[in-house]
């Protein structure tokens, strides 16, 4: 690695690693957004990860037009390996990652860099928007954990930030990246979470409310986020949770661990619960085992999930597949929040597809802020 080599320049150099695999339709927009940054002192390393389309040729053409772009061609090894390869070719004082099908707002790096220069923190993270049809929408949970702005804080001061698992809405000091021993896992999907978890645990960081990234979720089946019903996807998701939890436990803070398990690790489960109707026996068995592994003692009834998903989580814990499938099917058909009723034990959700007498009261109960 060539981290942190100083150069004589008016602005500090930001190295941007861009892994690219079969993204010919999207790569130009990604590179244009990087080249159009208000902070112009950039070194953009595109790693053509064995693309079978024109991605490599597109990257080469951009490199011929702008000397800030360098292209590395490799055999296909996957996202984590491509990012790690890119890190072998950087020389900037600061380090960023850009996925080749996404787009940066024009001031993204300027916002994060200015924050780091004021605070002296190890890295900075900002909020994101994602495309919802033709609209750009800021996920409510991202808005929540990025407000208010914070400077040079630790994970003990803001443990819920561990839910910000993305590689690409952050700017790192290259010196911190190297001294903290950070790298991306290889040969596994969802590689962002273990590494970003380690970064939050090992450093001081700024949290910015500004949107610094525009995330494109492709709906052509090529995005890994569209493949949750596969065994490989679920296996990788559970493994990255396992690695991230191991880091949190090694960190040694009971409070951080509790927030991490209840609010962070559980956060993506609803998208998997939606796959329960029609899932294979093997997939169900893996989901059931995974839920017991992470929440068998504490139970998802204590998590930050919505009431319906707390109930579904409890049903998964109990290995009640038919009931979990019925709940998810009913909720999908409802198109609105489940009804709520008042009982002698307090308010609870009301679902006609399940007998409340067969369910632990905590799995149906509403909390004060949900009534």
Describe the main β-sheet briefly.
9 strands, mixed
What is the helix/strand order? EHEHEHEHEEHEEHHEHHHHHHEEH
List segments where confidence is low: pLDDT < 50 over at least 5 consecutive residues.
4-8
Shape: globular
Which class do the helix and strand fractions yield? alpha/beta
- How many E-type strands? 11
Rg is 22 Å
Q: How would you name the oligomeric state of the polypeptide chains in this document?
A: single chain
Question: What is the rounded distance between the termini?
Answer: 54 Å
Helix content: 25-40%
**SS strand fraction:** 15-25%
What is the count of helical runs?
Answer: 14
Rounded average pLDDT: 94
Task: Kindly describe this structure.
This protein has 371 residues and is an alpha/beta fold. The chain has 14 helices and 11 strands. It has helices at residues 27-35, 55-65, 79-87, 108-119, 140-145, 174-179, 192-202, 231-251, 254-265, 269-273, 281-295, 307-317, 321-334, 361-364, and strands at residues 14-20, 42-49, 69-74, 94-97, 123-132, 135-137, 150-153, 170-173, 205-215, 339-343, 346-350. The strands form 2 sheets. Strands 1, 2, 3, 4, 5, 6, 7, 8 and 9 form a 9-stranded mixed β-sheet that branches. A two-stranded antiparallel sheet has the order 10-11. The longest helix is centred in the middle third of the chain and has 21 residues, at 231-251. It is globular.
């Amino acid at each position: 690695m060539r981290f942190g080599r100083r150069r004589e320049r008016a602005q500090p150099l930001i190295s941007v690693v861009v892994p690219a695999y079969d993204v010919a339709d999207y790569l130009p927009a990604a590179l244009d957004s990087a080249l159009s940054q208000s902070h112009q002192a950039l070194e953009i390393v595109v790693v053509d990860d064995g693309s079978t389309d024109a991605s490599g040729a597109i990257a080469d053409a951009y490199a011929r037009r702008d000397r800030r772009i360098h292209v590395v061609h490799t055999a296909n090894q996957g996202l984590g390996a491509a990012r790690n390869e890119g890190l072998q070719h950087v020389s900037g004082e600061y380090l960023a990652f850009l996925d080749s099908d996404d787009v940066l707002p024009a001031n993204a790096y300027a916002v994060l860099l200015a924050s780091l220069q004021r605070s002296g923190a190890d890295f900075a993270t900002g909020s994101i928007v994602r495309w919802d049809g033709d609209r750009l929408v800021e996920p409510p949970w991202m808005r929540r954990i990025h407000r208010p702005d914070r400077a040079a804080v630790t994970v003990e001061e803001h443990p819920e930030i561990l839910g910000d698992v993305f590689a690409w809405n952050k700017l790192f000091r290259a010196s911190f990246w190297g001294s903290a021993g950070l790298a991306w896992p290889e040969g596994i999907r969802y590689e962002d979470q273990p590494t970003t978890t380690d970064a939050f645990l090992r450093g001081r960081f700024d949290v910015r409310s500004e949107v610094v990234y525009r995330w494109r979720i492709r709906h052509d089946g090529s995005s890994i986020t569209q493949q949750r019903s596969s065994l490989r996807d679920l296996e990788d998701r559970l493994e990255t949770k396992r690695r991230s939890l191991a880091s949190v436990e090694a960190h040694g803070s009971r409070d951080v661990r509790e927030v991490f398990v209840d609010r962070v690790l559980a956060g993506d489960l609803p998208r998997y619960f939606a796959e329960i109707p029609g899932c294979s026996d093997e997939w169900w068995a893996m989901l059931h085992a995974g839920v017991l592994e992470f929440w068998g003692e504490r139970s998802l009834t204590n998590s930050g999930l919505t009431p319906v998903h707390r109930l579904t989580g409890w049903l998964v814990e109990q290995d009640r597949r038919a009931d979990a499938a019925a709940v998810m099917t009913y909720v999908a058909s409802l198109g609105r929040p489940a009804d709520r009723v008042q009982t002698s034990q307090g308010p609870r959700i009301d679902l006609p597809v399940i007998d409340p007498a067969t369910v632990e009261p905590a799995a149906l109960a509403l909390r004060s802020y949900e009534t």
